[in-house]
Amino acid sequence: MTSNGFDTAHFPLRRGSRSVKWDTLASKYGRDDLIPLWVADMDYPSPPCIQEALRKAVDFGVFGYFAPPASYQDAFIAWEQTRHGVTPKREWLRFTPGVVTGIYWSISALTTPGDSVAILTPCYYPFMDAVKDTGRSLVCSDLVHTDHGYTVNLADLEEKFQTRQVKMLLLCSPHNPVGHVWTKDELLGILELCRRYDVLVVSDEIHQDIVFNGHEHLSCLRFPEYLDRMILLTSGSKTFNIAGLQNSFAVIPNDALGQKFDAYVKTVRIKKGVSLGYVAAEAGFREGAPWLEEVLEYLKGNYDLLKKTLTDALPGIHIDPLESTYMIWVDLSAYVKPEQVVEVVQNQARLAVDFGFWFWPEGQVPAGDTHIRINVAAARENVALAADRLAAAIQGLK
Ligand SMILES: Cc1ncc(COP(=O)(O)O)c(C=O)c1O
After folding, report:
1. Deepest of 10, 84, 201, 281, by most Cβ within 10 A of its Cβ?
2. pLDDT tens by residue, 268-319
3. Cα of 326 to ligand 1 centre, how many Å?
4. Domains detected in the chain
């Protein structure tokens, strides 16, 4: 155990702990004997400061109606100031149980059925669900892959804005699944297009703190000239591994948009969420930074191990340099045909990963896509085993 409580020697066994990642393999993949490297949570206990705060609240033993203290918002604001150089005002803050819920609420509150909502594909699939489930029309603009990794295709996005009368862009920043941290120029390019075509921006920044190798995540609040069209959605849920506690923020600088958002949320009558979520988030934002630094080091080590093992065995495998998130987007095209991916990865290597084709709408997956997304927020020995098994399964194809 390190001084900050990140205990790499004793990760708990999650199987049987009601974990989506570990305990729903059979229903999701049709078999239970897989190494779970899919759902985006970490196989690590949350920081000790969070566990202690929760223990205290549980020991108190009364779970009646809860009034979130001002200190909870203060802790979040201070975190955003110190880590991201922005100061969200208190009156901009709204509670959402999860970031995905915040996406559904933003679409419902700020667009009307039939409106076009754009995403940048490949894209975290609940974005597509949100657009479809709310009866809006989904518009996809594919990222382009260059020698420097992925970037937005501004010409294509502009064309889509023009021809499809897009009302809202769901931006994923940093981007899941490709792990890209948007640069200032990229963000300015996107935001300027949104201003020109009067498109609202919902910026999902849930991965804001999982950033590596000197990359700087730029909060959308860093762009004051565009604040009037911006909804920032974020949370401590990825940062401190507390997604199960359902506590997130919508940050809405524009008062008129904030009022519309509130009016919508009133109709779904979800006001505050769960008391323990607030307790955990506040403790994390207040005291969790040293623990996070150690986790980031460990995650980087896992990425390095995965990449080295795979590329030593299979030099044609492509993995971009690590920028953000603990999900690694791996291109198997040098070795595996699209129709072989599930068989090789799931049935032969016995890994539960996210398959590339999940990240486009049905019928719009680029021909020949062979990506998989591997979550390396696992014990190092599981990452090592997964990398060995994947390499062996692919070599077995030759
Ligand atoms: C980009 C992104 N947004 C949102 C979520 C989920 O957020 P929540 O559980 O708060 O709805 C995830 C989880 O993987 C994610 O990657």
Report:
1. 281
2. 988 788 999 999 999 999 999 999 999 999 999 999 999 999 999 999 999 9
3. 13
4. 20-46+290-395 (3.90.1150.10), 65-287 (3.40.640.10)
